[in-house]
Predict the 3D structure of the following.
Amino acid sequence: MAKQPVARRPASVYALAGIRLFNGVTGLLAPELLIRRLDPDREPLSPAAVYAFRLFGIRTILLGLDLLTNQGRRLREDLREGVLIHGSDTATAAMLGIRGHLPPRTAVLTTLISAANTVLAVTATASLTDSARGKRK
């Protein structure tokens, strides 16, 4: 059985996958680190926050692995969904800051990180879509 060649991925796909994997592993295995960055003055830590970070940690790991293993149309769909996921994260972080639910510095940093992830997803989606169109011509 012949192996199919692995399609090249834009650097933005690898960057987004790396970010997802790092955040997912941290959320799953060390949620306290992330919680303390968002809510440094709360003691004891909220068990609900620990649960939420672990819940989304495993999902984020799987989303990151999808970017490294899926190809073709499936990868393009993953990236389009990533635009929605990261765009929603960006809007949420911004609203938390605007409403005063996060310290201003944390809100700005969280919003910028989420916005960077959104840009990576948009860039990767556009790159793969252009590449797919080029192959069909």
In short: The two ends are 29 Å apart (CA to CA). Helices lie at 11-29, 31-38, 47-69, 72-98, 104-136. The chain has five helices and no strands.
